[in-house]
């Protein structure tokens, strides 16, 4: 696509390998790819990244806040796990936007900010409350960000919320080496994202090989219905309502 690419992650072999792979794929040469050690939970690191990207390549036209961790959490579990997860998954995105967006707005160039959310931040299934809280926060923040951007005179930056389905990555592999049949590849997910952002979608709601968009829509509508119909929270998993939910998707 002719992009100059900066990738950022905590320092180490994985970042080095990712930088080398990206450079090998660049048709414009390795000089168009930069791998920058960065801890997104530290605003000083993000400020340094912004300065490095602009010094090296001149402008930032696409910002993708994608860093995330999912160590697992319980409601009354280790507070440090909660803090680390929120520092990376939520504060990393908030700070990334606060650091990079002002310069993107001032440049008056068509630009994109894409924040990676999760369906777990919308339907909030039981089992990993800290992760759900972080991704629910990303959804709300990105909605507010897009509202802010569209009300700034002359602003040519738009924000978008990527909502992946089941994607086979090291984060989701759970020790597996073969991609499960239900999972999409990262490449499928990004191709879908580019198509929908190009179409102007804010909510980039990705299907996968197991879950269709229609099923996602029913699940999201059911979650909203808990409030509208005054059902117990997470009623999809409540013994008094679980069967009613199954009936509601029977035709899919």
How would you sum up this structure, described in words?
A 4-stranded parallel β-sheet has the order 3-4-5-6, sandwiched between helices. It has a two-stranded parallel ribbon with strand order 1-2. The protein is α/β, with parallel strands linked by helices. The mean pLDDT is 96. It has helices at 13-25, 43-57, 79-107, 129-150, 186-198, 213-228, 242-248, and strands at 5-9, 33-37, 62-65, 111-116, 157-163, 203-205. It folds into 2 domains: 5-213, Rossmann fold; 214-252, no CATH class. It is globular, with a radius of gyration of 19 Å.
Rg, nearest Å: 19 Å
- CATH fold field value of the largest domain: Rossmann fold
What is the makeup of the main sheet?
4 strands, parallel
Mean pLDDT reading: 96
Which percent range fits the helix content?
Answer: 40-55%
Sequence of strands across the biggest β-sheet: 3-4-5-6
Order of helices and strands: EHEHEHEHEHEHH
Distance between the first and last residues' Cα:
37 Å
Number of domains: 2
Count of DSSP strands:
6
Q: Any idea what the CATH architecture of the largest domain is?
A: 3-Layer(aba) Sandwich
Give the full name of the CATH homologous superfamily of the largest domain.
NAD(P)-binding Rossmann-like Domain
